[in-house]
Design a protein that fits this description.
Number of helices: 22
Mean pLDDT: 89
Radius of gyration: 26 Å
Largest sheet: 9 strands, mixed
Helix content: 40-55%
Structural class: alpha/beta
Shape: globular
Distance between the termini: 60 Å
Low-confidence stretches: none
Strand content: 5-15%
Number of strands: 13
């Protein structure tokens, strides 16, 4: 090792420090790839960029040769790397640049964050232990020249690779494919991701981007022309169930139905049920789902759209209903108005009224922040409807309800447990089953009331999972003794449409993005100005596939032409630009 340092004219102390920082990056890459793919280790960028960034981080020490200038950098680096590993286990990406500034959001998710920690994450800071035993300073005078020689060589190779790939932004964009998406962070480090976010955060649309969006939308058919006449539904109840996945439905555990109320609803002759809806949320999780279903757009490439573009305005389901039937709209959520900037989202979607955490009586406290439990939320919401404070008789309504108890890590207080499992299940699996059963129980209150209303025949009820819930724990649970063959290895959420004008069981794979045009289609609102970037599942030519946020195709891709696959994958970048440039309302700014 000393001979290698000597060859590059690096002192022993500088060489060891450099080696340990590079190894820290590579160990981070290894932990990252455990969750994704080891393909990144076949790219030269992974090694050369790790070396270049390590040399940059070493620069303050080179100037001062004092440990006080180096230890804080190493400490912050380890915090950033561990935080990104934890974030990736839930969001399947590195932390977006803007998300470092939303610490207020984290207070509601501390238990979820803690549950994302793995014991081996702490091996990263252990690599720094040798620094504390390196006190001897080299007496050689050529060590700085050696450092600059290494830096020039490493930086030159990095820049050449970027140039060959068409520039930094294009180099990263070229990896946003099914095979390479999860390799971006190891190949360009978390700092490369931050730089990419900064360079692509502009909100001014270019002529080229405008033409690309227009061409895509002109080619896209969300709701095909149809001669079918469906019976009218003028009221829509839309329930987003936190982290509810499809595999718990129509299942029993130890002889007990996990979701008896939802199972009963699925069996009704007027229900449309789709069990294989691919979760397509990104860094905004629950708020991404609201965008996808309410506005028919996929989330932005990086970060949470509601925090990045709070002043945007969208064409939405509730506005389509308001245009046609003068429908009033409500949002009922257990969250605070600041979580995911929900209050701004309410305005962006054109929702008339909203009730947040502070508007409910705290009963059956549950979830990471002891918010109102799902059952209490449903009972209180029903009570307000019975009083006429929400959805007065003789009016048409759009009501969006967002549950809370299903937040990761799915911990309910003992008094809320409605099933008591005897077998030795992994804690996460046991907690998930108990929570799903509790949420199903809560939905029973709502369904019983809605079906008793005199205008039920004009009411359509949509219940769905807002996103997958198991994230980084899925592989472990799928391979556990109790979870094997029971827990799904796919990120599917259920879509249950009760009292639908067209009933069916849609077993093909679809994306969450297909829900918006499907609901417009069922409501008879095909002529609304914005039909979404997905496709109605009522269309006879609906493809049996969906594209995941990491661009892999779920379903039966062998039956899909390559140009159609490219069209589906491109929907993410088109949606990103529509949101980023406020495309539909850009002329009003």
């Amino acid at each position: 090792m000393k001979e290698i340092f000597k060859k590059f004219k690096l002192s022993h102390e500088v060489g060891i420090r450099l080696l340990l920082v590079v190894l820290t990056f590579l160990l981070f890459d290894f932990f990252w790839c455990i969750q994704t793919t080891f393909r990144a280790f076949s790219y030269p960028e992974t090694y050369i960029n790790a070396l270049t960034i390590s040399l940059i981080l070493l620069f303050p020490y080179i100037l001062t040769r004092r440990d006080w200038s180096f230890f804080p950098i190493v400490f912050i680096l380890n915090l950033l790397l561990i935080a990104n590993l934890m974030y990736n286990r839930t969001y399947n990406s590195a932390i977006p640049l803007n998300s470092y500034l939303i610490a207020d959001n984290l207070t509601d998710f501390i238990p979820s964050i803690v549950a994302s920690i793995r014991w081996f994450d702490f091996l990263l800071p252990l690599l720094m232990i040798p620094f504390f035993f390196m006190r001897k300073k080299s007496k050689e005078h050529s060590w700085r020249k050696g450092y600059w020689h290494c830096f020039r060589l490493s930086a030159s190779v990095s820049l050449c690779l970027i140039f060959i790939l068409g520039g930094f932004v294009h180099a990263i964009k070229s990896k946003k494919t099914v095979n390479d998406y999860m390799c971006i962070t190891p190949a360009y480090t978390i700092f490369g991701g931050m730089l990419y976010d900064a360079l692509t955060s502009g909100t001014q649309i270019s002529d080229e981007d405008a033409k690309e969006i227009t061409a895509y939308l002109n080619q896209h058919v969300a709701i095909p022309l149809s001669t079918d006449t469906l019976s009218v539904r003028k009221n829509l109840i839309l329930v987003f169930c936190e982290s509810l996945e499809s595999w718990v439905l129509e299942k029993k555990v130890e002889g007990i139905e996990i979701t008896p109320h939802l199972n009963r609803a699925i069996r009704q002759p007027t229900t449309l049920y789709a069990p294989h809806v691919l979760s397509q949320v990104k860094g905004g999780r629950s708020i991404d789902c609201q965008l996808i279903v309410n506005a028919g757009l996929l989330p932005v490439e990086s970060g949470a759209w509601s925090l990045l573009y709070p002043k945007n305005r969208f064409f939405t389901l509730n506005q389509a209903m308001k245009e046609c039937w003068d429908t009033r709209s409500w949002l009922l959520t257990a969250d605070r108005p600041t979580i995911w900037n929900q209050q701004a989202v309410t305005l962006a979607f054109g929702i008339d009224y909203a009730k947040y955490r502070q508007d409910w009586k705290l009963e059956e406290a549950s979830g990471p922040r002891n918010n109102i439990g799902d059952a209490a939320l449903m009972r209180q919401a029903v009570n307000l409807m019975q009083k006429g404070e929400i959805w007065p008789h003789g009016t048409h309504a759009f009501i969006q309800i967002v549950t809370y108890s299903g937040h990761h890590p799915f911990k309910l207080s003992d008094n809320l447990h409605r099933i008591h499992l005897r077998k030795n299940y992994p804690d996460m699996l046991r907690d998930y089953l108990v929570t799903a059963n509790y949420t199903d129980h809560a939905l029973g209150y709502l369904l019983d009331y809605l079906q008793s209303r005199p205008n039920y025949s004009e009411t359509m009820i949509v219940i769905m999972g807002d996103h997958e819930g198991l994230a980084g724990d899925r592989k472990t649970l799928c391979t556990s003794q109790e979870g094997k063959g029971f827990v799904s290895n796919k990120s599917f959420v259920p879509l249950i449409i009760i009292n639908a004008p067209k009933a069916m069981r849609y077993n093909s794979v679809m994306g969450q993005i297909d829900i918006y045009p499907t609901l417009l289609h069922l409501l008879g609102l095909e002529n609304y100005v914005w039909k979404g970037i997905g496709k109605s599942i009522l269309a006879t030519d609906k493809l049996p596939v969906a594209v995941a946020p990491d661009y892999h195709l779920e379903g039966t891709p062998t039956a899909v032409p390559s140009n159609e696959i490219e069209h589906l994958q491109k929907a993410y970048s088109i949606s990103d630009k529509i949101i980023r440039f406020n495309y539909f309302h850009n002329d009003t700014e």
